[in-house]
Amino acid sequence: MESRNCRKCEICGERKLPKSGLFLAKFPLDPDRCRLWVKATGNEDLVNVPIEKLHQLKYACGAHFVNEYFNAKGNRLVDTAVPTECLAKPPLSDDLLAEFPLHVKSYYDKKSAKKRTSE
């Protein structure tokens, strides 16, 4: 049985055990960027997963990002980061991603709430 604390990279399958130094980034909530991440995984099963679930449960490890995508400390990705390095499978076709993303309503609700509070 797999531990709840054990997360894995959706691209290469590398696992992060508690207290290991592996960098894992959550899939983004931004629909356009998340689409690029799903495309990079080469995993067709992720196409039909709601975007909120991708963000909550799926990760990509640092090995798939160029150094320019990390902040100065190397512990966070910049907002434009997309996995492009060491991809295990060929990227998914745009045809497969035609209906992606699913369930983005909450993303836009959060964004509009942020705008309202900043005005």
UniProtKB/TrEMBL annotation:
InterPro entries: THAP_Znf
SUPFAM superfamilies in the cross-refs: Glucocorticoid receptor-like (DNA-binding domain) (SSF57716)
Residues of the THAP-type domain: 1-86
Keywords for this protein: DNA-binding, Metal-binding, Zinc, Zinc-finger
Top-level taxon in the UniProt lineage: Eukaryota
Record bears the keyword Cytoplasm: no
Name the UniProt record assigns to this protein: THAP-type domain-containing protein
Source lineage: Eukaryota, Metazoa, Ecdysozoa, Arthropoda, Hexapoda
